[in-house]
Amino acid sequence: MYQCPSDPRGSSSSGNQGFGDVGTTSYCGVTGNELGASLWGEAKNGIFWVGTKDGIDSKGNKGTRFSDIPDGLSNTIAFGERPPAADLYWGWYCFSDYDSLLALPNWDYNYSGCTLPGYFSPGDVNVNCSTTHYWSFHSGGGNWLLGDGAVRFMTYNVGTTILPAMASRDGGENFDSTQF
């Protein structure tokens, strides 16, 4: 249910980091696009962000409401494809942060030697550093869930331009939606 059917590891992918077998996910919530921000609480301008305490933001609001997305629901990405790490340490659907949330661009890493920032670009199921960016098993791009519930296939050629602009909910960025 939370795995891309194109994952060659199949639906039985699971990590075991002291919690028993835990299902993995191929999809991450978008935390925002703030340049230089780390995943651990800095990228706060997306639909999902980890800068909350018990799910409540600095204004006392729980979660993101439609009214918190002035850029428009159809102009803001909510989820993108990012398969679990090669070693299955990251990418569990039952945990948060690096397992199921990621900024775009992403400035955080959990494996040494990874190239940052991580933009939407091709990845490799056998390389742990592929978890530092959104990518998919589909040829040429991947699927993105927009705030309005629409799913769009976007190509890698918009990975450093249009998609980062769509990662914020309130940045007022301009982009040409005919390019994806």
Describe what you observe in this structure:
With 180 residues, this protein is mainly β. The chain has one domain (1-180). It is built from one helix and seven strands; from the N terminus they run E-E-E-E-E-E-E-H.
Question: Secondary-structure blueprint of this entry?
Answer:
Blueprint: E1 14-15, E2 22-23, E3 27-30, E4 77-81, E5 101-102, E6 141-146, E7 151-155, H1 162-166
Parallel strand pairs: 3-5
Antiparallel strand pairs: 1-2, 3-4, 4-6, 6-7
Tag the structure with descriptive keywords.
single chain; 180 residues; mainly beta; two-stranded antiparallel sheet; 7 strands; globular
Low-confidence stretches: none
Tally of individual helices? 1
> Largest sheet at a glance?
5 strands, mixed
In round numbers, the mean pLDDT is: 84
Secondary structure: helix percent = under 10%
Number of strands: 7
Q: How many separate domains make up the residues?
A: 1
By oligomeric state, this entry counts as single chain
SSE string? EEEEEEEH
Secondary-structure-based class equals mainly beta
Q: Termini, distance in Å?
A: 26 Å
- Radius of gyration, in angstroms, nearest whole number: 15 Å
> Reading side by side through the largest sheet, how are the strands ordered?
5-3-4-6-7
Basic shape:
globular
Strand content: 5-15%
